[in-house]
Structures are given as structure tokens and as C-alpha cells.
Specification:
There is one protein chain. A hairpin with a 4-residue loop joins strand 9 and strand 10. It contains 19 helices and 12 strands. The chain has 3 domains: about 240 residues, no CATH class; about 220 residues, Carbon-nitrogen hydrolase (Nitrilase/N-carbamoyl-D-aminoacid amidohydrolase, 4-Layer Sandwich); about 30 residues, no CATH class.
């Protein structure tokens, strides 16, 4: 190991940056659908070893930035696929999501390594400080400019259900903290100030800590299924309508008919509730009486149709991305309007600024983007569905924000409707599925997920998969909804207070090393 650190210290910085970029690319393989978690210590320990060669603040920042850029290029490439749906209008924008967005998100990785450099601690204290700063700036990434908390390190455990159980106690940010910490400990093997016996002891303790985490998580998962809500037979419909065809005027009615046919499919099971994906109905349902008359005929007796559909104000040019509940009499019983809109996808940020600097004249597609509206502050986050209780509704990537689960009113289960057809057969829909699964474990309650092209699924409060429809297939899921865990979860009760406390605690623990050094 001494030879390794000596060799790295002799490298020109561009070579260090290239190695850091490669490690970032490698980190992307730890997320869905690959989940190659054995690369976690390679990536984070490797980053810390490279960081140890930094001689200036600039180098310290860019070691982290190049790592982040690699991670986000490889992990978020699928966003660019959405810009190929209407390539004539949007192809010129592809560099923005595929290179520009990763470059921006990588700033937070760079700030984490810079902060670690500035506190000037060594050995185990450096690892503690780095782990805390990493998650602190991950919080910033989830908040700045409406936030994008995608592919946190904790999501690497999406296929290791015992490890994922820890989000029920410390949330996804807490699990990310633990993941970065245990993955960084092997970097101590290159620490010249530690004896071989101390290094071996710390590595052994690290492995033991991981084993205990997995064992405790495994013990938490019962062998028996959870009880179902009484009379909660649902049918999730996945029509698999291609995004390029979805809004064509001559195709829209056919899309609705396909949804209806799947909803009426005979399986020997009579569902009481039909659940359709985000914008499944490509019309303004609340203002289209003919469409309501057509759809109310398929609503099961004493049941409901729960569907994504755009909504507009009849008197102004306002539009909302909504979930609406239709009963057998043709009444809209409830409406949830999406609260967390996607920049560039659902609204154009800084529209006046881009016009002023002439960017919209260079790329006319920017100016043609129509904006969805935000709901009022009093708009409900939950919908009461007769027979199913109260559901927390999340449209598309709203499910990626764990703090958005909080609501003024209690709820019994979570409904996530989405349309991932924008991203084709890429890793994006699988990453989205893992995020939804994680919310189920955090809250200790079922997540029902209806996706246009997949992956539609039902998870119980332990994150166990009950049923699913694979990506890029049409089909239905007939099931009942599992009840929430008795007493909820520690995370549900306290939210982000626990992971934030842990982050601050570990940063302070790292800073103790600076105080000890000065004495």
C-alpha cells in the first residue's frame, strides 16, 4: 500500500482526476439495475486515497468533482433519452441533461472533498469528517433549485432487503451515511501513521459492523405476510403506451380504449378499484363530460377509478398534473395536484432570464415549453378513498423526496403513479422503482406503484415485492393492499431529525481530530 500512495503522489493532477472520474463511473454500477455493491469500498476508499494526493484547495475540490461527474454521467444518462422522443425539437438540448446536469450535481461532491480538506484532519478522523460532509452536501443536492436527490449511496442496497431495513430507523440519508462510512474505512490501509495491527483491527471491526447491520435487518423481516386491508381488491393497469405516440390526436382515444380493455379483462377476480398511471387519460377529465360518461361505465360497483390525468382551469391558462378519483355516478370525488414539478420537463425555470440572454432564440424549443401550475398551499397531499382509507399521493419523482412524505393528515398507504416511458429500456425506471421501495420501508406502509410502461409493483411495509409487471410490457396486477406496520417506524415518527443528527454528530467526531492534533 505504501508503494501505491507513493506512486499516486507522483502523478500529475490530470491523471489523478482521470482516476477519480473512473471511480465515479464505477460507483454508478452499484445502483439499479446492477447493484454491484462490492464496488462501494473500491469507489469511496479509492476516492479518499486519491484525495490524499491533493496539495491545494483547488485540487481537493476537483478530485471530488471529477468523481461526481463520472457518477452522474453514468448514473443519469437515461435523462437524455427523453430528449430523443421529439428529436427534431429537443435533440439540441441533449448535452444539458447528459453532461451539463451531471457537471452541476458534481459540484456537491467537490464541496464535500473540499470541506474535508479544509478541516485538515487525518486517519480515521478524516474518514469521519468526509462521510459527514458527503451526506451534508447530499442534503444540499436534494434541496438546491428544487433538488434532485437521486442515486444516494444508500440506494445501492436496493436488492439487499435486510440492509434496506435500516431506513425504517435512520432514513435513506442515514443509510447513505453508514454506507459511505463503512465503504471508506479500507482507505486506512494506506495510512502510514497506523500500525499494521491497528489497520487490521479497524478493517475487522468494519466488516463486523456491516455483518451486524445485515443480521439486525434480517431479523426485522417476518416470515409471514402482513394482513390486507379488508375489501381492498385493486387492479393496477400498465398500458405500455409509447411516449412518442401518447399525445398524438389520432391516437389518444385508442390509448383510453386500451386502458379500458385491460381494466375489464376477465381473470376470475373482480377488482373494486382501478388504478391507472400518471397522465393515463390524455384528456382534461374534469372538463370532458363525454369522457366521464364513457369511463364511469367501467367503474366497479361501489368502487372507484383512480387515474392520472391533466387538469385545466376552465377560465384561465392554468394546467395541473393530477390524480383524480372517479365514481360510478361520474363524480370526481377527489383531486391531487402534483406539488413538486420537474424543471424543464413540467416548467421552464428562469424563463424571462433565458429570453433576455437570447438562449430561447438559439434553442426555440425552450420557449415553446408550457408550464404546469403549482397547487395552492391548502391543496391536499392525501386523498380519502372510500373503502381504502387515506392514501398519500405521489406523482412521478415526488417519491424521491423522503421529507415530502410528511402530511398534515395521517394516511394508511402510498400511491405512486408515474410515466417512465420517457426513458425507454434504461436504468432510470429501475432506479425509480428502488426509490419507491425505499419509501415503503421508511414509512412502514405499502407502496402501490402504477407506471405507464413499467415497472408497476406493490411493496409491503418491509419492502417485500408482492407483484410486479416488467418494464416495457402491458398487463395488470390484481391484489389487495397490505396494512401498515403496527406503530409505524422510528423514521416515520421523527423524519429527518435522526439522520441530520447523525450527520452532525459524525462531522463533530471527525473535527475532534483537529482539536487533538492542536493539543
Amino acid at each position: 500500500m505504501k508503494e501505491l500512495t507513493d506512486s499516486l503522489s507522483q502523478l500529475r493532477f490530470w491523471k489523478v482526476a482521470a482516476l477519480s472520474f473512473f471511480l465515479g463511473l464505477l460507483l454508478a454500477t452499484t445502483f439499479a439495475p446492477l447493484h454491484l455493491v462490492f464496488f462501494l469500498p473500491v469507489c469511496f476508499s479509492g476516492l479518499l486515497i486519491l484525495f490524499g494526493t491533493a496539495k491545494t484547495k483547488s485540487q481537493a475540490f476537483f478530485v471530488g468533482w471529477w468523481f461526481g461527474w463520472g457518477q452522474f454521467i453514468a448514473g443519469l444518462y437515461w435523462i437524455g433519452i427523453a430528449f430523443t422522443i421529439d428529436a427534431n425539437a429537443h435533440a439540441a438540448l441533449i448535452p444539458l441533461p447528459t453532461l451539463g446536469l451531471p457537471a452541476f450535481l458534481a459540484i456537491f461532491s467537490g464541496l464535500a472533498t473540499l470541506a474535508t480538506y479544509l478541516v485538515n484532519v487525518r486517519s480515521l478522523y478524516r474518514i469521519l469528517a468526509f462521510s459527514g460532509f458527503w451526506v451534508l452536501f447530499e442534503y444540499a443536492r436534494g434541496l438546491v433549485f428544487t433538488g434532485f436527490p437521486w442515486n444516494l449511496a444508500g440506494y445501492s442496497w436496493g436488492n439487499v432487503l435486510p440492509m434496506l431495513q435500516w431506513v425504517s430507523y435512520i432514513g435513506i440519508y442515514g443509510l447513505t451515511l453508514v454506507t459511505v462510512l463503512i465503504s471508506s474505512i479500507p482507505a486506512l490501509l494506506t495510512d502510514k501513521s497506523l500500525s499494521t495491527s491497528k489497520k487490521n483491527t479497524l478493517i475487522l471491526l468494519d466488516c463486523l459492523f456491516l455483518a451486524v447491520l445485515i443480521a439486525v435487518g434480517y431479523a426485522r423481516i417476518p416470515n409471514t405476510p402482513l394482513e390486507m386491508f379488508a375489501d381492498s381488491q385493486i387492479r393496477i393497469v400498465q398500458p405500455n403506451i409509447q411516449q412518442a405516440e401518447k399525445w398524438k390526436a389520432d391516437k389518444k382515444l385508442g390509448h383510453v380504449k386500451k386502458l379500458v380493455e385491460l381494466s375489464k379483462q376477465e381473470t376470475g377476480i373482480k377488482p373494486k378499484y382501478l388504478i391507472w398511471p400518471e397522465t393515463a387519460v390524455p384528456y382534461f377529465l374534469t372538463t370532458d363530460e363525454n369522457l366521464i360518461f364513457y369511463l364511469q361505465r367501467i367503474v366497479p360497483e361501489n368502487g372507484r377509478l383512480i387515474t392520472g390525468a391533466p387538469r385545466k382551469n376552465a377560465h384561465s391558462k392554468q394546467y395541473w398534473n393530477s390524480v383524480q378519483i372517479l365514481d360510478q355516478a361520474g363524480n370526481i370525488n377527489g383531486i391531487y395536484d402534483k406539488r413538486h414539478l420537474v424543471p424543464y420537463g413540467e416548467y421552464m425555470p428562469l424563463r424571462n432570464f433565458t429570453k433576455a440572454i437570447g438562449l430561447t432564440s438559439l434553442i426555440p424549443a425552450l420557449d415553446k415549453m408550457s408550464d404546469f401550475s403549482l397547487p395552492s398551499e391548502t391543496s391536499p397531499k392525501t386523498l380519502d378513498i372510500p373503502g381504502l382509507g387515506s392514501a398519500r399521493i405521489l406523482i412521478c419523482y415526488e417519491v424521491a423526496f423522503p421529507w415530502e412524505m410528511q402530511s398534515d393528515t395521517s394516511f394508511n398507504w402510498i400511491l405512486n403513479v408515474t410515466n417512465d416511458a420517457w426513458f425507454g429500456k434504461t436504468s432510470g425506471p429501475y432506479q425509480h422503482l428502488v426509490i419507491a421501495k425505499t419509501r415503503a420501508v421508511e414509512q412502514g406502509m405499502s407502496v402501490v406503484r402504477a407506471a405507464n410502461s413499467g415497472v408497476s409493483a406493490i411493496f409491503d411495509g418491509y419492502g417485500r415485492l408482492l407483484q410486479m409487471i416488467p418494464l416495457d410490457e402491458s398487463g395488470i396486477i390484481d391484489s389487495s393492499i397490505p396494512q401498515a406496520l403496527d406503530g409505524g417506524t422510528l423514521y416515520k415518527k421523527h423524519g429527518e431529525l435522526i439522520p441530520v443528527f447523525l450527520v452532525l454528530l459524525i462531522i463533530v467526531s471527525g473535527l475532534i481530530g483537529k482539536r487533538i492534533k492542536s493539543q
